[in-house]
Amino acid sequence: MINPLVLKLERHDRLSDDEKRVLEGAISRVRVVEADEDIVHEGERPSESNLLLDGYAARYKIFSNGRRQITAIHVAGDFVDLHNFLVKTMDHGVLALTPCRVAVVPHATIEKITNEHPHLTRLLWLNTLVDGAIHREWLTAMGRLSATAHMAHFICELFLRLKAVGRADGDTIQLPLTQAELGDTLGLSTVHVNRVLQEMRKEGLIRWQGDALTVLDWKRLTSVGEFTPTYLSLQLEDR
Amino acid sequence: MINPLVLKLERHDRLSDDEKRVLEGAISRVRVVEADEDIVHEGERPSESNLLLDGYAARYKIFSNGRRQITAIHVAGDFVDLHNFLVKTMDHGVLALTPCRVAVVPHATIEKITNEHPHLTRLLWLNTLVDGAIHREWLTAMGRLSATAHMAHFICELFLRLKAVGRADGDTIQLPLTQAELGDTLGLSTVHVNRVLQEMRKEGLIRWQGDALTVLDWKRLTSVGEFTPTYLSLQLEDR
DNA sequence: CGTCAGATTGAGCAGCTTCAACGTATGTGG
DNA sequence: CCACATACGTTGAAGCTGCTCAATCTGACG
């Protein structure tokens, strides 16, 4: 089984065989987290980071009044809390949206990598930088796009990210989120998510049955969502 | 003149004298950027990164229709485009909001640091991770807080960040933004920014005259903005 | 004194939320 | 195998938050 993180990093720059071996060896164990359980809790000070091998996860914050905002959706190959190796205290939770297979990597091992493998360190750093770029893109979408455009933008992004790790099947991806979870992701109410989706289906932009989301008109979808993929850094460069 | 980046990093972990010397030596030159000029342009592929020594800057994206979203406000000590050392192509612009003194650090020098100074590298990495944490916090504020709460949250954050680099004067900070720029930051219209500010002044939360913003009631301001500073990582730890 | 950027105010309206009901599929215990 | 529970999606109506457009005010500056 190929580590999907290797696949992901190789979209950014070449990895040496030695570096691949180091990444494989970094995994201390693999665990399974059930849907709707936290992979990491807010407030925790973990000594390990979690690499998602399979399934969908979400970073989220909850306010006192129960309102929730999802700040990231993670898929296979995503290091959901790599940052925590340096940040120390989790300022948000990470939730399994579906059953998840998670590779556990001790912080001590990551520290060893930073001491001994500068190029690999830079690629892991880049990995967190792309997360940051995605956050910025979500900020602009949230602040300046309509609900429909925001939704279209989100779908475009997720599609490309899944494709990058070989998890898109033609024009179809798995989107195992409820409309309520989508609302928490986009900052919308469940009711409005429902109406926006109906509109997009009627417009012939997407089909969404069960978990399977099909992009029917990529060109128009990117145009509606004002989507440009530069920020995902999906190009080979020396880094 | 002490490099404000040193000040900032020392809020996270101790720096050795050697590391401080390396940071000082990394600066190839200092330049001045006028207000309303780009420090870095969107689409550029720079070979240097910019460290803000003085002044205020903003990261921003612009849509075809002219709508703008500011995704970060930067102050003294902020490495406004450190990420670009690995990301290569700027997916957003960085604008000087006031006249800025900027220290220029060649990417080659940063690469050298990553090869030779793992601990310093981790602190620079952390620096970009805190940027990411701030982005996430802004996302939740944008998605789930009212305009007033969002504004309060923003002021609390900026206040603590300026205090961390010694740029707060008691309860007063410099906030050299127009209401239009504040709107682009919070995702609001200029008109609504104006009304929210009047409300907050009437409530006795803040005073804002010219560039000087004074926090009149910190406790209530944090409560209105549902502000908790964990995400800023302002604690000494071994990293 | 005129000009200009930025702040303020008013009026009308659109987008999205809230509340509440109902529909539909899937699962579960008796 | 039915009765019921549960989770999720869909629909309608009413209302609020924040937007747009447009005018006016204010202070700084040449």
Molecular structure report:
The structure is a homodimer of 239-residue chains. By secondary structure, the first copy, chain A, is α+β, with helices and mostly antiparallel strands. The first copy, chain A, folds into 2 domains: 4-135, Jelly Rolls (Sandwich); 147-232, Winged helix-like DNA-binding domain superfamily/Winged helix DNA-binding domain (Arc Repressor Mutant, subunit A). Helices cover 43% and strands 21% of the residues of chain A. Chain A has a 4-stranded antiparallel beta sheet with strand order 2-6-4-5. In chain A, helix 6 (147-164) crosses helix 9 (218-224) and helix 7 (179-186) crosses helix 8. The longest helix of chain A has 27 residues, at 118-144. The radius of gyration of chain A is 18 Å and the shape is globular. Chain A binds a DNA duplex (30 and 30 nucleotides) through helix 8.
Layout of secondary structure:
Two copies of one chain form a homodimer.
Chain A: H1 4-9, H2 17-25, E1 29-33, E2 38-40, E3 48-54, E4 57-62, E5 68-74, H3 84-87, E6 93-96, E7 100-106, H4 107-116, H5 118-144, H6 147-164, E8 172-174, H7 179-186, H8 190-202, E9 206-209, E10 212-215, H9 218-224
Antiparallel strand pairs in A: 1-7, 2-6, 3-7, 4-5, 4-6, 8-10, 9-10
Helix pairs in contact in A: 6-9, 7-8
The structure holds a DNA duplex (30 and 30 nucleotides).
List descriptors.
239 residues, alpha+beta, Jelly Rolls, Arc Repressor Mutant, subunit A, 2 domains, four-stranded antiparallel beta sheet, 10 strands, DNA-binding
